[in-house]
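haha ok so turns out i had the wrong file open the whole time. this is the CORRECT one, sorry everyone. sequence first:
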Amino acid sequence: GPLDFASDTALTEVKIPSSVERIGFYAFEGAGLTNLTLPPNLKAIEKCAFRSCANLKSIYIPQSVTDLGGRFFGYKFDNKYTKFSDRTIYGHTDSVAETYAQENEIPFIPVESLTSSSITSTQNNIADIGTETDVTISVAGFPDTLTLKGPSDAKTVFAREEAEIVKSEKG
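then structure:
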């Protein structure tokens, strides 16, 4: 409910379960969040839910979200509303996330533009990743799949299932 984790500065990472469809007003206001994973079936984020989260620099809004409350992200309150200058919203083109970002003059990056990104390593720090058995990859809500291609052209594909990243080998 409202104010559940407000002002909890020790709370740095949250993975909202897939059963949650609405984040209440002021729910994480002032929390110490640095990383947030929202479920793919989330419908609404109410006003000021992530207001005054000084360390939460970016947020990915799933396409399922159709209702965003006022100043839910990108603002702090200290006797008056002030917009943070270093925030970014990731979301889908023509979504409520894009509209919110435009209306609040917060930089918006469409996730569709990120799905074809490639990583080049000149120091071989990701070479041989296909031979590793334990691989951890942290993805801040996007893209839905991430493919790493090793020197032998064998591919390791990481696909998003719910909020988890799972590894599969492709030849």
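The first helix runs from residue 96 to 103.
again sry for the mixup
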